[in-house]
Structure formats: structure tokens, C-alpha cells
Amino acid sequence: MLLVEILKLNDKVDNKDWFSKNDLYIKIIYGAQIRRTNIVWDKSNPVWNEGFVFNHNATEHVIFELYDGDKWSPDELILKEKYALKNSHMDVKEVDVGILKIKIGDVYFKTREKYNTMLKKKTIVDIKLKRIHEILQLNDELEAFHTKQ
To answer: pTM above 0.85?
Structure first.
């Protein structure tokens, strides 16, 4: 599961409205999955602190679109940024995407890493036990051979 947390804008956005301040929100697009923050009214430098979870897919990037929401006219696209996912199975980290500050990463990364380590250790122990069993079996066969003679 991919976690995307929209934190804030790092810089102010020039006012796009004629009679009021900006009413900003972010649209997040990951493949066919789309999420959207709440509108922060009358702010040019909003803080959201909103988190969203996406199912992993083959898409190698996340698109962030910053809009100015309007009541009486269509919403205005102000900015569009693309964040390349080098590895969607990464620890959650804070990054800057253009003027946007976000957290992004795999929700289960640490848990998966912990269990993979445990599984590797178990596999190594199983291999060692199997080898010990083979040696003991050979030793029994060797003793049986010597007692026959």
C-alpha cells in the first residue's frame, strides 16, 4: 500500500482570484486511482496534513495537481508536478515535489523488511539443520556398514 501524505506548500502561490484569496486543494493521481485534499480557503500558503492510501500498481509515478477551487467558475489548475517512484516498496520519507512538501512510501515497508529478515534467518537455520541431519544419516549408514563387516 502506497501512502501519500500531503503536508503543505513550501512557498506562497500568487493569488489567482480577483475578489478573494486562493482556495487551494491538491489532486493526487496514481494510475487510475485519484484522491483529493480538502480545500483550504483564503490561503496562499496552506497546510493540509492529509494522508491517502493507494493500492500498488504498475505506475512508476504519482502526479500532483494544485488547484484553486472556485464557487462560481471552473477550478483553475495552477501547478502540475510528477514524482517518479524509483521503488514503490520504500520506507515512508518526507520529500519536496516542486513547491509541495509530502511524505510518501510503502505503509508496510518496515514490517515486510522485518519478516523478510526473519524468514532469511529461518531459511538459513533450516538449511543448517537439513545438512546436520544428512551428516548424521551418513554417520549412521557408515556405522551400519562397519558393523556388518
So the answer is: no
